[in-house]
Specification:
single chain, 3 strands
C-alpha cells in the first residue's frame, strides 16, 4: 500500500502505523510503499504490542492526511526593470 493511500484512508488516518518492507523514495526518508503490520491511536500501546510480538525492526509513523505531501513548486517572481534610455 502506498504511504499516501494509507494517510488518506479512514482506517489509518490519525493513527500511529507500524510499517515493514518499506520502499523509500530515492534520496528521501519518505516512505513510498510499505506493509502495515499494526496501527493504533496510542503510540505506547502500539509499541508495547510490537515488543511483545518481537517485531522490533518496524518503522512507526503517524498518518496524517497531508503527511509527506509533495511540495508545491513555487516560482520566485522575477522583478523586471524597464530599460532606461537617455
Amino acid at each position: 500500500m502506498t504511504w499516501l493511500d494509507m494517510c488518506r484512508s479512514d482506517e489509518y488516518r490519525g493513527r500511529w502505523v507500524a510499517l515493514d518492507n518499506i520502499d523509500y523514495e530515492d534520496g528521501s526518508s519518505q516512505p513510498q510503499q510499505a506493509d502495515v503490520v499494526d496501527s493504533d491511536e496510542d503510540l505506547g500501546e502500539l509499541c508495547s504490542r510490537m515488543r511483545e510480538s518481537d517485531r522490533t525492526a518496524c518503522a512507526i509513523l503517524y498518518c496524517e492526511d497531508d503527511s509527506f505531501a509533495p511540495p508545491v513548486a513555487k516560482r520566485a517572481a522575477m522583478q523586471t526593470r524597464g530599460a532606461v534610455h537617455r
